[in-house]
Write a structure and sequence with these properties.
The complex is a heterotrimer of chains A (321), B (291) and C (335). Chain A has 321 residues and is α/β, with parallel strands linked by helices. In chain A, 31% of the residues lie in helices and 24% in strands. Chain B has a single domain, classed as MetI-like (MetI-like fold, Orthogonal Bundle), CATH 1.10.3720. Chain B is built from 11 helices and no strands. The chains are: A alpha/beta (321), B mainly alpha (291), C alpha/beta (335).
Chain lengths: 321, 291, 335
Amino acid sequence: MEMLSVRNLVTQFSIKAGQVKAVDGISFTLNEGETLGLVGESGCGKTTTALSIAGLLPSEGRVVSGEILLSGIDLLTLSQEELRKRRWKDISVIFQGAMNALNPVMKVGDQITEVIMLHDNKNYQEARKQVRELFSLVEIDPDRIDGYPHEFSGGMKQRVMIAMALACRPKIVIGDEPTTALDVMVQAQILNLLERLCRDIKMGLLLITHDLSVLGEIADKVAVMYAGKIVEMGSTEDILTQYRHPYTEKLVHSFPDIYGKREMVSSIPGDPPNLIDPPSGCRFHPRCSLATIRCRTEEPGYIDLGGGHITACHEIRGYEK
Amino acid sequence: MKETHAIRRRKAGQFMDSFRKNRMGMTGAIMLCFFLIMAVAGPLLLPYNAMDFGVADDVFAPPSREHILGQDDMGRDVLRALISGARISLSVGILSTLISMVAGTFLGIVAGYSGGKIDVLMMRFTDVFLVLPWLPLMLILAAVLGSSIWNIILVIGLTSWAGTARVVRAQTLTVKERQFIERARAIGAGNGYIMTRHILPNVFPLVFANTILVSAVAIISETTLSFLGMGDTLHPSWGMMLHYAFESGAASIGAYWFLLPPGLCVVGVVLSFTFLGYAFDEILNPKLKKR
Amino acid sequence: MKSVMEASALHVHFKARGSFIQEIFSNHQKKVKAVDGVNIQIGEGEIFSLVGESGSGKTTVGKALLALEHKTSGSILFNGEEIPSGTGKSSRRFRQKAQMIFQDPYQSLNPRDIVLDIVGEPLVVNNLIKTSAEKRERVIEALGWAGLRPQEEYLYRLPHELSGGQRQRVAIAAALILNPQFIVADEPVSMLDVSIRADILRLMVEMRDRLGISYLFITHDLSLAWLISDRIAIMYLGKIMEIGSSELIVGSSLHPYTQALISVMPLPRVTKNKKRLILKGETPDPIDLPVGCRFNPRCPVVQDICRRQEPELAEVTPGHQVACHFPKKLLVGAP
């Protein structure tokens, strides 16, 4: 079932140097219980996408056009007040380093009860009972409800933040680099947890990350972003093995594969473009080894490769696999 | 080295751009310029000698066309005294600030960078100067050392470095933890080198802003000392003028022209330094920028 | 193979910072055993990786090898001689031969210095040049090694005018300018975008091939260690758990901790149904170490003896050492 549908979203920032289209016409859908990975380098617009959907853009940014449909309702037509009410119930966000956002002088349980009481009209006792359930859901001993943040390790605090994000049973959870600052073992624990939650409570997860290899473990679909646009999207299998866009190819090959050949990973020459004045034609052309004159002048449209696999490249090649 | 200068100039340009946009800073700068011009060029523009005594009629003569600000208890021109006082007050303020800045920066960096026992000892020493009531201390020092202008400078310098040392030490502690300090150690740099080449440039903006604020305090201190009669009679400052005005009873006979000008000048200079100091603090410490 | 750097029974302990009350009333000061008996030999032209999670003590080992951290006990031999501590002449000579590349190129360069001064600093500090023309010439040469071309374009830039990758190259140029024999690279790519990691790693390997530099590569990312290094040591709570060639560690590791690390390592593959060995809990603080094997509270195959007796590193096959009472393969097959 389709839960979230983003259509032609354009988000613009007004900064001193001019107008920046951080997100420039992206579209995707997220189904019930599904995990969509949004991957790209720093500055590609992936976090802006998350903030736009959650309605948490800073004051310099605004959504210029497009639709964000959640269960058929366009969030962009709602007032600030209506959005605020929906924020925890429909959509919640787990930020990178979110564990540092806990108030150090307040019991962790109370910080979650607060959210529940505010949004669900429950009394303290009911809310507390719910927090205990949430704790066991994210595999924390419910008896630790009265602990203070400093008594929790980094991974445990991240679990608390996940519990908080789940407090009002949202349909969609957006994870913005939720495991980036964590050790690999803790990362595996958290990813495992998120995967189980998607399955068990039919939570839709939009996972934003710079680390494509993480998505191989958890995502059903992957969208690759470059300079404010989605350049390729498809099932995780499609993206990791049947990629057609040169950027995706380079990105996949910048991770070593210990079950593959031991050869140096690839790098992408040059720097990501300046979005104040993006390159003409295909935005990737200055860094692309396949670029032709057409790439420099004409922006590629999406080519449907079947099975939900789309790519925006003039020079798509058939990769033999 | 041409390019190095170009970079310095570019950085200075950026600084000037933000300074020009800072209304408080510009006000301070214009006010201070006025007083500096007065101190430097003033004496050349006036025909009288500061020490020219007048005849009996001139004593406490109110402002007139010839003497715009009137005459004092000895029949001297007040404007003339005011202008020569500007030189004294400003030099005392700036020179004593220099002493305080050098001593405070040195102690602050050494204490903060060395840490351990050296830090504890130096900071307890600083605390002593910090909590000493500065006015009685200055009075005693001035009395013991005699009231020459150099002693006044020294006394003010010695009593005002402690605050600077504290601020510099705090900043040194944060700079010390940055990785480029460790990198410098890894390439074999000694402590002296690290303190002068890496710590100092990174605490300097703070020192600079702080120094300007110290100047304001120094000028008030000088005025206070002189007003209390500890000034150097050979180098009459604004504080000395106030002292004479008070002693001669200018206030009770209503000779406002003798009292007000030096008082207003002190207020003006102190304000201009304070404005400048806050403005620099705001520009050089980006964390304060958004208020 | 001649060993360039050799540490034996290296211990680095710190005083634990307890609470105020604890510090007053506790009789004996608690110790954080950051490095607790580490032996490594790094050969000439070898890239040796130290892999571990945060709190494993890997960075402390690196700093101790460069005398940037005081060792509590043990010996560190550089070219067969004990490394000097302090700031004397022999210490100077050592510092010229052994350099460090730091993790965060945003923090490790003085924001107020231009590239010329940053890269030339080792020469100035060690009094190795006489004129500024000479400095400029050597800096240009080092920038060339680090792949910053045309060099003249970079000389007068400030760190904030460079991208992350360029900054790390500047840091590498500064490390190379003294022609060192040995470099400790502490997570040199972890702060960089994935698309430029390869450039920096390739540069390190290239310098090894051309100049014969030996590296201690400190990383949390086992796959990067596998990619560029000759041998890998896995650290856990201040001790080496397993040590061997990259192929052995990744392909036929025998320590349960190593195998768990490998099983959770993200890959550029669809691994949704991969068998994983996810350990419970997190690496504890190295203050109160468990009795016996320090990995025993989290070990999936723990036995009684593991709670009583600490296993020492023992050779299982030539060049492959494991510190485990029951070294065996737990998971079979690639995903």
